[in-house]
Sequence to fold (349 residues):
Amino acid sequence: MTEASMEAISQYISKLFRTSGKRAKQSLLLPEGLCRRFSLAEIKIATNNFDDDSVIGEGAFGKIYMGFIGDCTLSVAIKRCNWMLGQGFKEFGTELVLLGQLRHPNLVNLIGYCTDKHEMILVFEFIVGGSLDRHLLHQDQHDPLPWKQRLQICIGVARGLHYLHTGVKHTIIYRDVKLINILLGENWKAKLADFGLCKKGPPSLSKALIRIDSVVKGTVGYLDPAYLRTSQLTDKTDVYCFGVVLFEVLCSRRSVDMESEREQSMAVWAPACVEDGTINQIIDPYLVGRIAPECFKIYVNIVTSCLREDDMKRPSIGEVEVGLEHALELQECADAAMRKDDVDAGSDQ
Fold:
């Protein structure tokens, strides 16, 4: 990293934690007590000096290590951002400041950070189940997820997004909903992770239309066509991304099938299958015969509504959450009725 880059990072971090002046009293400071500042020495002890054997993930941002703090009593995930690999210090700052102030059961919990010696390190709670991507797309290594479990995971994601859109002072648009950013904790509780692309919008209680001019960022296969076309970011952008995820959950397929000749996009292909009545041909074979018809109908209607080209015609994330909860209720009622029929049939024999 060049001296100029290191200096820029130092200036940015100093700006984030400036403690004097009117501006500092606004949104740049972390609430005291919610986030711990670690020394680099503590981080090195936690990761055995960034031992490669501790690496549990790697991407454009750098590496994620599993480590231990508090006399090895607390397992944590330590994200060491590498500016040279593309994770800018602004994204680091965004994630640090946002997660330092947000608390919700369906968001990953930020424990602390380290900026010693120009490092950009975030320390999170360790999520035992790993990413939803691993469980859905690598079924040779994991047992297939039951349908009710998939629904419960999706409801958890919807609740996390709903909190970001309406449960905080200013609307936060997540902008990068995808399988790999959904982590599975104990009892399969879904937690959103990686907040580097988040964008703060107007006050969440404002009735004004949320539209933010923004450089288009996101992941191929999940990008909202309305956002791509206008460069205007809205809360419905998250709804679109989540719609892609919902189809991936149903079909256990990637958002873009790179192995097909046309590199088929799930966001285009799956709604077309719904339209022509062939959706049953592309769902996860494990789920065939395991989804109640009423539940399936509600679920597919929700997903297709999320992927409408016109963002104004998409539901809010709150409406999606309610729809998914209704789908789960229908599935549970169907399962209970089937169990009762089995018991009655057994007693008649």
